[in-house]
Specification:
124 residues; 2 helices; Translation Initiation Factor IF3; four-stranded mixed β-sheet; alpha+beta; 4 strands
């Protein structure tokens, strides 16, 4: 199922949102999930790794987990009173050789549309 980012929360990897200005910095926000790979997935992936190439079961798992981490990030930022998250990144680690931790993090902010007219650029 394709990932659809939250529609009520702006989430960007840049430190700004084009067309908006930050009116308040709320603070750090995150979304965390720990997912266990099932025994069947581990056995399948072990044998697939011998042949080389992409291990699709792990790719699908990590893609799903990242989407859930982004949703939790949005939920956390919203609970803090933010309507956007800037400078978003991911941190991933392995725990006990069978679990994967994925954390999405960023800075929760309140933004408003920038209504000031665009300025002409002059290069002289």
């Amino acid at each position: 199922m394709p990932f659809a980012p939250p529609t009520d929360m702006i989430i960007v990897t840049t430190p700004f949102v084009s067309g908006y200005h930050v009116t308040r910095v709320v603070g750090a926000t995150f979304g965390l999930i720990v997912r266990s790979r099932g025994l069947g997935q581990n056995v399948f992936a072990f044998f697939r790794a011998w042949g080389g190439g992409e291990i699709k079961v792990y790719t699908d798992l990590l893609e799903s987990v990242r989407h859930q981490a982004i949703q939790r990030l949005a939920d956390h930022a919203r609970s803090l009173g933010a309507n956007a998250v800037v400078s978003v990144g991911f941190d991933t680690s392995e725990m006990a050789g069978m679990m994967t931790e994925v954390m999405a993090y960023g800075t929760a902010v309140v933004v408003q549309p920038d209504t000031t007219p665009a300025q002409a650029v002059s290069l002289h």
